[in-house]
# Entry
Amino acid sequence: MKKIFIAVLLAILILNVNIYSQPMEKKHIVKFMEKLNLTDEQKKDVENIHFNAEKQSIAQKAKGETLHLELRQLLKADSPDRSAIEKKMREIADQKIQMHMTKLDSWFAINKLLNPDQQKEWKKVLERSPEMMEKMIKRHHVDSQQEGPPFEHPVPHNR
# Structure
């Protein structure tokens, strides 16, 4: 049950990461936000939430890149240490979950600002998660096929 919950949560969160990180989808979220008919105060608050989330995202991406770099170093060792590699992989997984949690926190922070009618519209962001998840998996699969073997990427992909 816990694994299913985490898988569903990650699917939802990946949508949010994708919304905030892809230029085309940023246009969609801006368009979507216009549909909410936000008050000036709500717009200001949403802008602050996005700003803070983006700041956190930058720091978290840097941390993720550092962890991937450390993992590659462990993998290149003459005698790779399985437990050290496993530990680093768990750190990477935990860091990715934290990144997704930041996006989820921002979704809920925005939701809290909205009136009930606006919340119904805003909830559609979460309802679109499964189809967005499928697109992201396909895109990642194509990207990873083009870039070579695992752990050889110059910069990790945190999508």
